[in-house]
């Protein structure tokens, strides 16, 4: 094991929610995903942290969403085969590329795709593991919790009004911002995450964001 699981729970705390990882996931994704991510699955499951703000994804449940959002997209480092790693309560996803590593973030409510080629960090298991730890250590409330149209963070206000999301649900803006809907708490519903994300992928124009922060 390159890193202890406590390196993640020290930052995020123990999971608020967790779905045990089926044994067949380890068999299928061994060698395709970093060992440290599989260690997190084994100890924490497909976990939600801080009342559902951040989730470790079950890639099987999210592959259709990943395919919807990455199909036909012209990224600066070319094509890759993508697997979902994390997502936020509002659907912001980080994806692992078999060739380029943890190199693509999707923000569905804005249609942003943020590429950052990590292929130089793919040479050994330690560097692959370090990408997962680095991403989870760098993730913050500010990044995962979008500001609404009133310039105030949304998560705590929506959590108070609707309660937490689960492993298969998310906070969705209704109507979607791409269709003119406002990003305000009273326009958020708890929705089926995979279905909502696929619909967003069909109606939201994609924008490749280079160095957006």
UniProtKB/TrEMBL annotation:
InterPro entries: GAD-rel, T6SS_Tdi1_C. It comes from the Bacteria. Residues 150-203 form the T6SS immunity protein Tdi1 C-terminal domain. Residues 7-107 form the GAD-related domain. This is DUF1851 domain-containing protein. It comes from Nocardia iowensis.
